[in-house]
Each structure stands twice: as structure tokens, then as C-alpha cells.
Fold:
Amino acid sequence: MTNQIIPNFEALVDRKKLTLPNNAKLAVWIILNVENWSIERAMPRTVLPPPMGKPLIPDIPNWSWHEYGMRSGFWRQHKALQERLLPVTFAINGSVCEKYPKVAEAALHAGWEFMGHGFEQRPMHSLENEEDAIIKTINSIEAFSGARPVSWESPGLTETSKTLHLLRKHGITNIADWVIDDLPCNVETDFGTVTTIPYTVEMNDIAIYALQNHSSEEILNRGKLQFDRLYSEGEENARIMAISIHPYITGVPHRIAALEALFDYIIDHDDVEWMTAKEIGNWFNKQHTNP
Structure:
């Protein structure tokens, strides 16, 4: 395999004219991330610092922070999305299919796109065998959902120099790790083309609340500003807006209303297309094939 792939630089002002489905100005995609945090390991992130600065395993309070999301927070988000009939890209650890089947079944019945998100919530560079973990994730999702995933988001957006090559080798064509643009890009691997789907670390509830410690309304405030500018720019060329959410963050009682209000604000606008990762990738590549 070749060295680390870096997508070719393309200035936004130089991007070719793209036309969204139904001549929309803006495509919005929602990524709902569901994860399996192993209690036997250090937590992927924490809400409470360790007592006296000494990390403990098992880390009960921080593991429970995430577990609350799967037991309670997810169902608030699920209700909000289903009531509005919004399509969702369901970024799922492969092990969730076995550890939290009730959650995975709800997504399956809702018709959401299953996106690979690693097998457990562990960074790609910490895995003993990266290819085996990718295969295990894809196979778990396919066995549960009946469809082989074609989209992927690495845990923590982590990659090694082999990740894109291995993902493409096993059928992944859309990747959300590269937060580099407001439009998709194509990159070449040893096994074919992978399309980067515009993802976000800014319209992401982890950054907004767990890292930046904003008040509950911030996802609505920031989301409206993000949407308004991209919607305006969509007059000249297509734009993609991502909203990334996690059950233990925006699924809690004091934040869910702000998330619902953001959905309603966007719904109230015409010329918006709600899409999934697979739909965005297919649209973008069709535009390249048939300009």
C-alpha cells in the first residue's frame, strides 16, 4: 500500500458548479453516532476528571455518562427524528449490534443508513489489527441490517496511512473523517476511489458541549448561523451541512429541545434537501460522470 493519502487541494471558489437534487441550495445530513465503550479500558472521553488526578479502571462515572445515552438519550433523539421524518446516517460501532440490539433495531426499522464507525470506540492507530477490525465491523453491520455498509466514520476521525486503502478494499466508498470542505472530494486509493463527505467538528455536539462547555442553546445558535450562511452561498453553488450528534450529549433533557428547534428551523426553509452519506456520495459522483 502507498503512503498516507492527502486529498488534492481545491479552493471553494474554484469548485465546479454542482446541482443538488430538486435544485436545492443546500443538502443537510444528520449523523447520529452510537458507540460501545468497553468498561475494561480507559474511556474515549470523560466528563469528570479522575479523583486526585489518578485515572481508574473501571471508570464508572464516565462509562455511565455514555451508557445513559444508550438507555435514555438515544430515545429522545430517535423520537425527534422520527416525528420529523428526517433521514439519518447512523454511525455505529459494529459491536453495538450485539451489545445494544434494541438501539440498532430502532435505527433499522426507521430505515436509516448504517455507517461503519469501528467495532468498538477505539482509535484506529490503537488497534492490534486494523484490517481485521474493519472486516469485523462491516460483517457485523451486514449480518444485522442485511446490507453491506458503503460509508465510514473512524472513531475519533482517526486514521493510519493504511486506513483509506483498507476501507476501499472492503467496499467502503464514502468517508467522513476529512473535515476539509463544504463539498465532497474524491481521493484515489490502491483499490479505487473514495469520496470524502463533508463532516464537521464544529456543528458537532462533542465539541460544542463536552469540549467548549457551551450552554444548552448553543447548538441552535451555532446551527442557525451555519445554516444561514451556507444557504445563502447555495445560490451560487451547492453546499453540504453536517450535524453530528451523540445520545449522551444532545439526548439529555436540558439539550434535546435546542436540537429539535434547530431541526424545525431548517425544515421551515424551502430548497433544502435532507440526505444521507450514501446519497451524497452517489449524487456527487453522478454529477462528475454526467456534468
